[in-house]
Amino acid sequence: MPDSTQPVRNDAGIAHLLPLLAQRFGDRFSAGADIRRQHGHTTTWIENQPPDAVIFPTSTGDVADIVRLAAEHRVPIIPFGTGTSLEGHVNAPHGGISIDLSRMDNVLAIHAEDLDCVVQPGVTRKALNAHLRDTGLFFPIDPGADASLGGMAATRASGTNAVRYGTMRDRVMALEAVLADGRIIRTGTRARKSAAGYDLTRLLVGSEGTLGIITELTLRLDGIPEKMAAARAAFPNLKAACDTVIATLQYGLPIARIELMDPAALAAVNAYSGLTLPEQPSLLVEFHGSETSVAEQSQTFVEIARDNGSTAFEATTRAEDRNRLWQARHDAYWAMVASRPGWESHSTDVCVPISRLADIVTATTERAAAQGIHAPILGHAGDGNFHALLLLPPEDPETRARAKDMVTWMAETAVKMGGTATGEHGIGQGKQDGLVNEAGAGLEVMQAIKQTLDPLNILNPGKIFAPR
Amino acid sequence: MPDSTQPVRNDAGIAHLLPLLAQRFGDRFSAGADIRRQHGHTTTWIENQPPDAVIFPTSTGDVADIVRLAAEHRVPIIPFGTGTSLEGHVNAPHGGISIDLSRMDNVLAIHAEDLDCVVQPGVTRKALNAHLRDTGLFFPIDPGADASLGGMAATRASGTNAVRYGTMRDRVMALEAVLADGRIIRTGTRARKSAAGYDLTRLLVGSEGTLGIITELTLRLDGIPEKMAAARAAFPNLKAACDTVIATLQYGLPIARIELMDPAALAAVNAYSGLTLPEQPSLLVEFHGSETSVAEQSQTFVEIARDNGSTAFEATTRAEDRNRLWQARHDAYWAMVASRPGWESHSTDVCVPISRLADIVTATTERAAAQGIHAPILGHAGDGNFHALLLLPPEDPETRARAKDMVTWMAETAVKMGGTATGEHGIGQGKQDGLVNEAGAGLEVMQAIKQTLDPLNILNPGKIFAPR
Fold first, then answer.
1. Which of A423, B158, B262, B447 could form a disulfide with A385 if both were Cys (CB 3.0 to 4.6 A apart)?
2. Which chain A residues are within 8 Å of B206, Cβ to Cβ?
3. What is the ipTM of this complex?
């Protein structure tokens, strides 16, 4: 695994650059220890690597100015949204300037007739949905955290309803970005499709700040469904739950969410919230559509679940019952963390063809148990994507080393099954060996593109690729 | 407009290379005039520019061998699927070797549980659907022609049901491609989503053979819907028809197709097929789902259409009536060509935000009439995408020049409205000025990527970018 923790700092460049930036940005520049630490924050075991300073731009022109100055002094730039990414994306392993985009938080346009909107990168998904409240429209991507839309695009985020509404790959129609030399480009258009040239929008989405800094996004919206319904079904074993997912998709049921919880996750939720949910592999499902349609979808799902051996299920179209049904899923993360007080937690994700989901989840659970790791599992089952929350005894370097090996093993196993090292968390610093294994000769193509568009390697260096 | 018709041939390289290829490929190599002419075929007014030879590889290894030899001799390579592209994509403006992939036509795997399949690039969409017949699955992208899947990926094709099922951008999960130096890469995986590194799959989709030659594709399939229904509605004016499209999408109705036909297109169909359809702006719609669902969708659509002033509509769930309803759309191309016997025809497309569809269609119709061009219009209205079939008197260079200006004007107008120079036909040779106008500074990024991945400019030179 590449050691991104070994800094190669351009101390002289940084020393020259900081006073220039301080002068240019005044109180929107900070080199204070607290704010630096906060911007090098990672939510995992990856060591915090604070930047040398943080700047809060308020315009694309500000961002371009910072990049040009940084390029001149060969100092790294690390874009920062809300800091909720999970693989060390906002760390500064080579030092440099964190660009905190949270003050670029204007919704610039809503085109209700076209079901799209234009936003600055610091707008969070919840802020956008609050802004949309009176339009009858909503932005469906929900990765859990109230992340910034720029950060979600940069990491190709998705979440619970990607099975119906896609990922950021599908939702970003157009971008404005500042390149490594300060040039500003626009990619894509507000047309719903295009065959005009290379798909630079999709190249920037998921590039984790290594090819450009996203300064504006045009996003595709959806009409708020007339009605929502929900169902929960418990299964005798994991295979029966996964077979239900497969049959549901083959049937063409337009499910909005289909989430898997394993017995360990449900046990945590029961303990946390005083519930008595069956501690068996379970699916939580949500349906969006007309009243007739969601009732029919729910009915069909229950039949499919029953055919696959589910004996305990509950379905509802009433909003309060729906919220109660989904409460288990919403509480799951904190319930799982609370299930081992004081332990370290590390969330990792992989994604496989759905036919292999039961296999890899079973193998993961067994391996974790054998390694002394508690690993409850939550899955976006409709995508073949799941999260294992690895819970480890505190200050136990040996178990931690085994957990790191396990992350590597999960990524390799997913790739062997025809899947990917990460479905939605990204590569960052934590999954670089997984990408090397997965991409093969394609990695050279990625590196060639990086070299071409960022020859000085100043855009988020040490992410995606091993440091050079 | 860049003049792609001025060849810059490497005659010496070609003279050295042809005997080597003839020896290597035997009767799978041809330099015959007929076969060369057929492979330089374009369906438009763009001049035919035949290659110097055609090779029919049967494996990825064959393709890599051809590319390595061609690179060594600096001779262009032009990938060829079925030759149904519309912007000169298969022409050989600098001479070179056409690689006809039609013999790489094996369906390599069908993963019914995962709703995906793996195919060679020469498999056509109809052949794939015939192969899938007994699986309950289908591949939904329908650009009209029975194009090869490799060609459809290379040109980012879509068609009538993109509004529901997306375009090739959304349907290609993974690729194998031969790069300009003969290296073979694999991009993407069979997982339904990934956050692992740069999206090379989406970079190759729509690159028109200029970055690599696609030698294998993994495609996402859908379950065949239980039931289909159809409706046709005529409107007093174009705006009413387009407002119906907008309201239908805002409502979240999961329409499978929503096609616009203008009075000129309907008049052509009436004359061609002896029908008496109202010669007013009309929508043809198809619904996919359960019996209950399609009946409800159809009912809702009729209500929306009525609210927008439609007085003539017809809806059906019976297969034979559905086919009769859609016959008008299926016959439209030939009916329009037949409406002006002996005239030249040129199909062009642009795509705009849906709120601007009525504006640009009206402006196009008016401008065409003023220029002496007959231009019936068919639209994939749910995407804001439409085709004008420009019909011109034969051997009339002045009208042809005005028609070319009109194509440029349509592309520029679409971009001014927030749209794109082409929704699905691609850039090829015919829309290069449109791309320059649309992409702005992004064009330099595209060119930098092209330069990096194909430094000798041997992969389909003279396409997308002006010749260099």
1. A423
2. 195, 197-199
3. 0.97
